[in-house]
Structure formats: structure tokens, C-alpha cells
């Protein structure tokens, strides 16, 4: 991060589909090493906001800044070039390929003769997982044979290897048991400690309180507000989500 600039900043971003204001003048800031929880019911506008940041949609109005520089994000390729990677709930993994093949899918390493360099890719996969402090000894296993938490780790490793500075994680602990939820939570903490900014979308308010430094709540396309997690109770957060009620302490 340069100077006092945020890693990512969205200012008054809006997006409409026909007469429906999916996102209405929403602002967001994310700093390096921060976990920002993005909360709201289905239809609140969370997915549309994230798709604008990840290049799936173009906003109708508003501005996006990366490290203080105004940018235009018109495609997922633009977002990845800027270090923004999105890990959707579906994870976009190929079940019939092994861990290494999934990590490099579409971006395979090749030797100087043009052949795929399997050894280099396996070594890079191990190094990336080690950086994440995630132990997955059998990298030749098919993704179809992995647990939910292991699949999540492979999807994250793919983003990290290709130099993500911002990770957008959509429901990363959905359908995981308590043990694997804890492992993924620790993985998120470790990545944040390495300076990666993380936007965490989750319906599980307990997960958000356990992991997020701040929370941004949306309702009906609008921003209810942003609060420091330590400053509010779960009941206050739920009141923001359900009724749009603001707690006594607001950061913005």
C-alpha cells in the first residue's frame, strides 16, 4: 500500500438492472491485512457489488481506486491484473483433475521446449500451500476425493500463487463441518497476517464476528453502514441486517 491510501476503495458505486437499483451509491474501503465482512440478506446487493469489483459487471456510476489510483475494471481479467481474485462458493474446480492441475488450470507452467512442466507445478503448489500453512500431502488426489475444506484451500492457493493482493471470498465455510470451518478460518487469519486484504461474504454472523475486523451491511441495494466488529454485538449487527437499524457506534 502506498502512503495512506486504502488497498481498495469504492466511492458511491451504483448499478441498476432495468428499474431495479441493485446497488445504490455504496462505498467500501479495504486495507492490506484487513478482513471486511460483507453482510445482508439475499437481494441486499452484495453479489452485485462484488461482481462490479471483480469485473463481471460494470458499475453505472461511482469510482474504484486501487492503492489510491483510479481504475476501470471492465472484465475479470482486469481485476486479476490489479491483484483482485474472487473465490465463488462453487470454487470453479474441475472434479476430474488433481490438485496441481486445478491450481494451474489455464495457466500451466511449461518447459523451454513447450511441454508442461509437472515437476515445477507440483513444487510451486507445495510452496504455495506451505505459505498458507495448509498441509495437503497428496497433491495427486482428484479434487472429487477432497473434503470441502481441502477444496477451498486449493481454490485459495490458485489465487495466492497468481499474486492476489485482494481475496473476495463468497461463503467460504458454507456446508463445512466445525473442524473444517475452523481450518478455513485459520487460513483466512494467516493470509490477512501476510498483508492480503480479504472481503468475506457470509450468512453466518458467527463466522464474521470471529474473523472480520469490520463489517459492511447492505439492505435493499443500499449501504446501512460500516462498523468495527469489536464495537457492536451480534444483536446489533442483526438489527442492521434485518431492519436497517444503526448501532450507537458507527465508523462511517
How would you characterize this protein structure?
With 252 residues, the protein is α/β, with parallel strands linked by helices. The chain has helices at 46-53, 76-81, 99-103, 118-131, 148-161, 178-193, 205-211, 234-243; strands at 8-17, 20-30, 35-39, 61-66, 69-71, 84-87, 166-170, 197-201, 214-219, 222-228. The longest helix is centred in the C-terminal third of the chain and has 16 residues, at 178-193.
Q: Mind summarizing the main beta sheet?
A: 6 strands, mixed
Spans of 5+ residues with little confidence (pLDDT < 50)? none
Radius of gyration: 19 Å
SSE pattern: EEEHEEHEHHHEHEHEEH
CATH topology heading of the largest domain? Rossmann fold
Strands of the largest sheet, in order across it?
6-7-8-3-9-10
Average pLDDT over all residues: 91
Reading off the top of the CATH hierarchy, the class of the largest domain is best stated as Alpha Beta
> Which class best fits the helix and strand makeup?
alpha/beta
SS element count, helices: 8
CATH superfamily annotation of the largest domain: P-loop containing nucleotide triphosphate hydrolases
- Percentage of residues in helical conformation: 25-40%
Beginning-to-end CA distance, first to last residue = 21 Å
Strand count: 10
Q: How many domain modules?
A: 2
The coarse silhouette is globular
Strand content: 15-25%
Helix/strand layout:
Layout: E1 8-17, E2 20-30, E3 35-39, H1 46-53, E4 61-66, E5 69-71, H2 76-81, E6 84-87, H3 99-103, H4 118-131, H5 148-161, E7 166-170, H6 178-193, E8 197-201, H7 205-211, E9 214-219, E10 222-228, H8 234-243
Parallel strand pairs: 3-8, 3-9, 6-7, 7-8
Antiparallel strand pairs: 1-2, 1-4, 4-5, 9-10
Helix pairs in contact: 4-5, 5-6
Amino acid at each position: 500500500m502506498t502512503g495512506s491510501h486504502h488497498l481498495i476503495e469504492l466511492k458511491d458505486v451504483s448499478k441498476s438492472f432495468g428499474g431495479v437499483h441493485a446497488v445504490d451509491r455504496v462505498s467500501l474501503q479495504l486495507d492490506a491485512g484487513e478482513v471486511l465482512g460483507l453482510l445482508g440478506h439475499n437481494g441486499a446487493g452484495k453479489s452485485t457489488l462484488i461482481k462490479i469489483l471483480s469485473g463481471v459487471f460494470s458499475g453505472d456510476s461511482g469510482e474504484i481506486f486501487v492503492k489510491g489510483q483510479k481504475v476501470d475494471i471492465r472484465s475479470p481479467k482486469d481485476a486479476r491484473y490489479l491483484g483482485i481474485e474472487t473465490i465463488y462458493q462453487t470454487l470453479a474446480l474441475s472434479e476430474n483433475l488433481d490438485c496441481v492441475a486445478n491450481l494451474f488450470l489455464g495457466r500451466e507452467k511449461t518447459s523451454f521446449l513447450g511441454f508442461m512442466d509437472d515437476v515445477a507445478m507440483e513444487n510451486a503448489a507445495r510452496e504455495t500451500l506451505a505459505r498458507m500453512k495448509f498441509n495437503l500431502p497428496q497433491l495427486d488426489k482428484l479434487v472429487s476425493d477432497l473434503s470441502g475444506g481441502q477444496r477451498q484451500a486449493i481454490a485459495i492457493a490458485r489465487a495466492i500463487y497468481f499474486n492476489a493482493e485482494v481475496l473476495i471470498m463468497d461463503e467460504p465455510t458454507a456446508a463445512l463441518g466445525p473442524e473444517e470451518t475452523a481450518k478455513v478460518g485459520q487460513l483466512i487469519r494467516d493470509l490477512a497476517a501476510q498483508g492480503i486484504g480479504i472481503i468475506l461474504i457470509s450468512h453466518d454472523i458467527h463466522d464474521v464476528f470471529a474473523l472480520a475486523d469490520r463489517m459492511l451491511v447492505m439492505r435493499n441495494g443500499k449501504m446501512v453502514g460500516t462498523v468495527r466488529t469489536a464495537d457492536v454485538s451480534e444483536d446489533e449487527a442483526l438489527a442492521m441486517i434485518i431492519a436497517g437499524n444503526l448501532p450507537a457506534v458507527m465508523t462511517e
